[in-house]
Specification:
Elements (H helix, E strand, L loop, with lengths): L22 H22 L7 H26 L7 H18 L2 H25 L4 H23 L4 E4 L2 E3 L8 E2 L4 H10 L5 H12 L2 E2 H19 L1 H11 L1 H6 L4 H27 L11 H11 L4 H16 L5 H24 L3 H20 L5 H19 L20
């Protein structure tokens, strides 16, 4: 081999190359997690964390989070920060329930997306056309839209049902269909009921994916896949993402930056509105104030956790959906989760020892000791802590993921046409 082709040493001070997780590694990590869940389930006798019911509940809870995160992904890939997703979700809950009651739930889904898209249009006008700070606009939308919906709710539904001081709920809409794969669902549940090591846990997870699944869950999964192909495999997607990386260079190549930003932010609102419509049409079948419970912000956290990529977003939504669904399940399963987290932190500490990251290793061991002690000294986790779990997990995950994040370079920057001339 000649010296010209020989590998050259890395320059001093050059940044270390970041390795991306490949699909084989991701699948191996998932298999390892299932082995850990199965082992702890066998030891404690509690297999609820990998049961089909838990998986179905986690999927249901992940949909509004995932749709809000997908909305943030579209908007921020075009360079517009959209923290107004919470308000756009509220618009989706109100418009979805209203049209679902008056017409049918399918029209309700479209109306929810339209309501969210109007919120996105408002955000685009304020930020793209008038150049207002994106955070200021998002905060304003989060105050304006819920206020309007609450006001109309108290007037329009005042003679229907009162659910509290000054709060009313809309009449119930007809339910949307659910999907169960016959034969496969019952067969997997039969295997799950035997509680065989690992095999029954895998069967429980798979059964949850084919049993009593709302059509909106399937639609949400399809939208994430389609978004990947649109944004990363088409000319349209390349132009849209270029607006979030370097809008001045995009403009010099003939791209109408304003148009692509508008499309992205309106689509962002439509996705958030779909997540809101899911809450009022599938999760509850009616609208009332405060249904979103901060899921728009958790969706943003899922997007950041996923590093502004659809696959990572889906994993983040699944994680947050899993923790969110725990409050609907047996409190004993949350107690078992303490032991699982403790063991996982011990394994992480061993990996950090192998990589000679001693400070991180000590921190992991301290957390592991705290979790295992909590499990050993208590019989259950108090209800308020279970309710707070999704929000605590959001903060923890964002703090751990902050070192590997790479947002679009022009994300949040005010762009004016012709500024590069």
């Amino acid at each position: 081999m000649s010296t010209a082709t020989a590998a050259r040493p890395k320059a001093p001070g050059a940044p270390a190359k970041k390795h991306k997780l490949s699909w084989p590694v991701v699948l191996l990590l998932i298999a390892g997690a299932l082995v850990l869940f199965s082992a702890v389930g066998m030891a404690t006798g509690n297999h609820s964390l990998t049961s089909s019911g838990q998986v179905t509940a986690a999927l249901s809870a992940a949909v509004p989070i995932g749709m809000a995160g997908l909305g943030g992904l579209w908007s921020e890939r075009a360079g517009v920060v959209n923290i107004g997703l919470e308000g756009m979700m509220v618009a989706g809950t109100f418009c979805g329930a209203w049209a679902g009651y008056l017409v049918n739930p399918w029209v309700g889904l479209l109306a929810g997306m339209a309501g969210g898209a109007l919120g996105g249009l408002l955000h685009a006008v304020i930020t793209v056309t008038f150049g207002v700070d994106h955070i200021v606009s998002g905060v304003g939308i989060n105050l304006l839209i819920p206020g309007i919906c609450a006001y109309v709710n108290r007037i329009y539904y005042k003679d229907y049902v009162s659910v509290g001081a000054g709060q009313n709920q809309s009449p119930p809409a007809d339910p949307l269909p659910y999907i169960t794969v016959p034969g496969l669902s019952s067969g997997l549940k039969d295997i799950e009921s035997h509680h065989w090591f690992f095999v029954s846990d895998v069967a429980g997870v798979l059964a949850g994916l084919v049993t009593n699944i709302s059509v909106v869950v399937v639609l949400a999964a399809a939208l994430i896949v389609v978004s990947y192909f649109v944004l990363w495999r088409t000319v349209f997607g390349l132009r849209l993402r270029s607006c979030g990386e370097n809008p001045t260079a995009s403009e010099s190549l003939g791209v109408n930056v304003y148009k692509y930003k508008y499309i992205a932010v309106i689509a962002s609102g439509a996705f958030a509105g779909l997540g809101g419509a899911y809450l009022s049409l599938v999760a509850a079948h009616f609208y009332k104030d405060g249904q979103t419970l901060g899921r728009g912000f958790i969706g943003l956290a899922a997007m950041i956790f996923g590093n502004w990529m659809p696959g990572g977003l889906a994993m983040g939504a699944g994680l947050f959906g899993f923790t969110d669904s725990l409050q609907l399940r047996d409190p004993g399963s949350v107690h078992v989760l303490l032991l699982i987290v403790g063991i996982a932190m011990v394994l992480l500490a061993l990996w950090q020892l192998y990589r000679r990251k001693y400070t991180a290793m000590v921190i992991s061991l301290v957390i592991a000791g705290g979790m295992i002690a909590w499990y050993s000294l208590t019989d259950e986790v108090q209800r308020p802590l279970i309710v707070a779990t999704p929000y605590v997990i959001t903060l923890v995950v964002l703090s751990l993921a902050s070192q590997r994040l790479r947002p679009p370079k022009a994300d949040g920057q005010i762009y004016r046409k012709g500024q590069g001339k």
